[in-house]
């Protein structure tokens, strides 16, 4: 248990076995009836218990986040691999094997709290480090670039992707007119749209997606040497995604798919792990690249700026109460510690305002830092007082600085003693509403991304474009979009135009680059492992009597197995977890068939289960002498032994078929 988890124990209350009381501790004799004037008479105003209970119920919901409303979270610990004092004086990164408690919230951007997990969307990846110097929040996404360059455009972008205001349709989707109208008329979005329409936007699991700080920050070491820095989270299970048909079906079969996957993995002890890496550019090299390093719509290609791995984060504990922790946690890019500072990235500069403003409305005032999940593990002292939700009971008569009554305390701390001091950067220029000329190239990195994709990844992007733009009702917007993306690749734009019934774009000039960045491709960077993948084993009374032997082969490899049958019960000492009516093929990474079914209807359900897994390019395994599987044999990823199944499952998908 980390220090933060121990701190939270003081706030945890188990009501089991306790007497019923009011919030003031008064024991109540009756909780079934309101106080009335006669058993059929009016309720009395003096019924304080009813009023307290109902008032609390009426106020149980706080405003959901405007963005990132739907989230899931967990506690964990971050441990350094090395001492990074050469690049930053942040204490939690200074020293080998230094541990820091963390809290991580994953989320979708566009949808409401009630939307589905598997929609096509950017995913949030926000981490709160509870360091001895104060809380540090690394607030990022699973895509390393963003749709806009300047934060003043953020309300416009979000308004466009949210449900359209006239009819509140569609929920949690970008496949509609206003989003694509925004894209076509704000072409800085081109690069991020390419990522958004790639497999990155439909991750298999929160445990199998990368995280990125997106913006450019600064590291400063104890000698005052500064580097520009970008942050990366790299999952040890590798980066894996769903296919689009599968993602849509899961949204109906289990809208909590990612939330459940994260929760179940931690409960099993299959703790999600991510390595923290940084890309570093020295100040003297700021202008040596073909792109502006402060532009949030640009990556720093890892082939040019390698990622240095600093340590590993392990998520090892689920929340005890979703509202108190996941819903009330308040992140802020301005929560930093000495050794971490900001750049002039205009998207980042605007975020430094927005987060505090958001918490004030969501969490009821300026004391959101006093909620248990947000409290630092180190002491905090200042002259702030009062306000909604104040927990601290401040003693003494002094609440100002400077003072003599309290010996001028709490006092500022010099930088050399650990006080935070902003990096002294020379600033010159006239006050203007403008954007740097170096931010005006919107298509080079969009093309870089496209050229870096494998053939199957390119096909998925074309299919995603065709789906999204095909949902746009206004054909003028469709035409604008295909004309815009002709600047990325004419073949891409022409194929999409054909699919959505629009005249192909004219030949236009595309950026003259042949450079690729293999690091952005999922398919070129596979992590072939079966660890924690979920497999459905189809069984019946006709299954071979060696079921235990089969399951042992799978569980030895840390594969999560569920038995699926026509009815629930016990078979060969094992519980049949699901039936064809309570689960679906899309919820599993692979399917293993041990039986055929005498009942024609049940056999059809089993055939559909196998067919769907096959159509989604998953591994299918089977035991001998099952005639219903014959149509799939001699296909890639369809194998006839548990050992071969494990080997094939590690590939995750079999695109060859």
Automatic annotation (TrEMBL):
Q: Which UniProt keywords apply?
A: Heme, Hydrogen peroxide, Iron, Metal-binding, Oxidoreductase, Peroxidase
EC numbers listed for it are 1.11.1.6
Catalyzed reactions: 2 H2O2 = O2 + 2 H2O
- Asked if the record carries the keyword Heme, the reply is yes
Which positions fall inside the Catalase core domain? 21-409
Coiled-coil ranges (or none): none
Q: Which cofactor does it need?
A: heme
| InterPro entries in UniProt | Catalase (IPR018028), Catalase_AS (IPR024708), Catalase_clade2 (IPR024712), Catalase_clade2_helical (IPR043156), Catalase_core (IPR011614), Catalase_haem_BS (IPR002226), Catalase_immune_responsive (IPR010582), Catalase_large_C (IPR041399)
User: Does the entry feature the keyword Cytoplasm, yes or no?
Assistant: no
Name the domain of life: Bacteria
Q: Which Pfam families match?
A: Catalase, Catalase-rel, Catalase_C
Please give the PROSITE patterns that the UniProt record associates with this protein. CATALASE_1, CATALASE_2, CATALASE_3
Per the similarity annotation, which family is this?
A: Belongs to the catalase family. HPII subfamily.
Q: What is the name of the protein in this document? A: Catalase
């Amino acid at each position: 248990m980390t220090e933060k988890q121990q701190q939270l124990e003081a706030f945890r209350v188990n009501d089991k076995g306790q007497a019923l009381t009011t919030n003031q501790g008064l024991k109540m004799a009756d909780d079934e009836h309101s106080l009335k004037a006669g058993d059929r008479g009016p309720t009395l105003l003096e019924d304080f218990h009813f009023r307290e209970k109902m008032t609390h119920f009426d106020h149980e919901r706080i405003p959901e986040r405007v963005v990132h409303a739907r989230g899931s979270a967990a506690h964990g610990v971050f441990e350094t691999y090395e001492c990074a004092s050469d690049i930053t004086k942040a204490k939690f990164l200074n020293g080998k094997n230094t541990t820091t408690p963390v809290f991580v919230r994953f989320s979708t951007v566009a949808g409401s709290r009630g939307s589905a997990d598997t929609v096509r969307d950017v995913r949030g990846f926000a981490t709160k480090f509870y360091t001895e110097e104060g809380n540090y929040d690394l607030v990022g996404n699973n895509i390393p670039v963003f749709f806009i360059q300047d934060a003043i455009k953020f309300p416009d972008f979000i308004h466009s992707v949210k449900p359209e205001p006239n009819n509140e349709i569609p929920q949690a989707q970008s496949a509609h007119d206003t989003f694509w109208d925004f894209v076509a008329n704000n072409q800085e979005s081109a690069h991020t749209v390419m990522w958004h329409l790639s497999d990155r936007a439909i991750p298999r699991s929160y445990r199998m997606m990368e995280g990125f700080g997106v913006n450019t920050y600064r590291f400063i070491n104890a000698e005052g040497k500064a580097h520009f820095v970008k942050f990366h989270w790299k999952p040890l299970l590798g980066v894996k995604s769903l296919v689009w048909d599968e993602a849509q079906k899961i949204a109906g079969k289990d809208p909590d798919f990612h939330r459940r996957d994260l929760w179940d993995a931690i409960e099993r002890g299959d703790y999600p792990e991510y390595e923290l890496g940084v890309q570093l550019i020295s100040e003297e090299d700021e202008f040596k690249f073909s792109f502006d390093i402060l532009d949030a719509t640009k990556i720093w290609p890892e082939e040019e700026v390698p990622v240095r791995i600093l340590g590993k984060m392990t998520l090892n504990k689920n929340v005890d109460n979703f509202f108190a922790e996941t819903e009330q946690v308040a992140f802020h890019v301005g929560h930093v510690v000495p050794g971490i500072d900001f750049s002039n990235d205009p998207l980042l500069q605007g975020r430094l305002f927005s987060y505090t403003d958001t918490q004030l409305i969501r969490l009821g005032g300026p004391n959101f830092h006093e909620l248990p999940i947000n409290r630092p593990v180190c002491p905090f002292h200042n002259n702030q007082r009062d306000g909604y939700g104040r927990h601290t009971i401040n003693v003494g008569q002094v609440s100002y600085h400077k003072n003599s009554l309290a010996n001028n305390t709490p006092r500022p701390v010099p930088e050399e003693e650990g006080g935070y001091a902003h990096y002294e950067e020379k600033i010159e220029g006239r006050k203007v509403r403008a954007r740097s000329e170096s931010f005006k190239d919107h298509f080079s990195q969009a093309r870089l991304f496209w050229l870096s994709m494998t053939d199957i990844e390119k096909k998925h992007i074309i299919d995603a474009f065709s789906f999204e733009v095909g949902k746009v009702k206004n054909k003028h917007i469709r035409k604008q979009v295909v004309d815009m993306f002709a600047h990325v690749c004419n073949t891409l734009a022409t194929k999409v135009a054909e699919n959505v019934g629009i005249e192909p774009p004219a030949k236009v000039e595309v950026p003259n680059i042949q450079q690729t960045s293999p690091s952005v491709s999922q398919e070129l960077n596979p992590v072939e492992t079966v660890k924690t993948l979920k497999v459905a084993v189809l069984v019946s009374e006709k299954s071979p009597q060696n079921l235990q032997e089969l399951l042992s082969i799978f569980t030895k490899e840390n594969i999560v197995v569920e038995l699926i049958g026509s009815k629930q019960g016990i078979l060969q000492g094992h519980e049949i977890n699901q039936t064809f009516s309570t689960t679906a093929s899309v919820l599993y990474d692979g399917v293993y068939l041990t039986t055929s079914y005498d009942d024609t209807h049940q056999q059809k359900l089993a055939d559909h289960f196998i067919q769907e897994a096959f159509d989604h390019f998953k591994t299918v395994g089977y035991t001998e002498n099952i005639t219903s599987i014959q149509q799939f044999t001699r296909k890639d990823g369809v194998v006839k032994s548990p050992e071969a199944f494990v080997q094939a499952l590690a590939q995750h998908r079999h695109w060859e078929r």
